[in-house]
Amino acid sequence: MRTVESVILEKIAPITQKTVAEDIGVNNTNLSRYLSDKGHRLSFPEVCALLDRIGITGDALAAAVGSDRVVVIAREEYDSLRFFARKGIGG
């Protein structure tokens, strides 16, 4: 399963960090440090601008959060469920 971090980085890559930084009005170095978790922080409006710039929309976030098709469970529980499901179908 892809992480949110990997999705964001994949969406930034073809645009380039420099272009995204310019488009959302932050210094390229600050964006780079933010993305690599080197101590720089972006403000909430800057994070929202970043998500908007790379195409992660409010509708997509709302759909993911509000979807009754998505359930979050602990990895151990998921692994156990898969194990017993496979046993049940003879796998």
From TrEMBL:
Protein name: HTH cro/C1-type domain-containing protein
Source domain of life: Bacteria
GO BP, one annotated term: regulation of DNA-templated transcription
SUPFAM superfamilies: lambda repressor-like DNA-binding domains (SSF47413)
Pfam families (UniProt xref): Phage_CII
Domain called HTH cro/C1-type: residue spans: 15-61
MF term (GO), any: DNA binding
Leader sequence segment: none
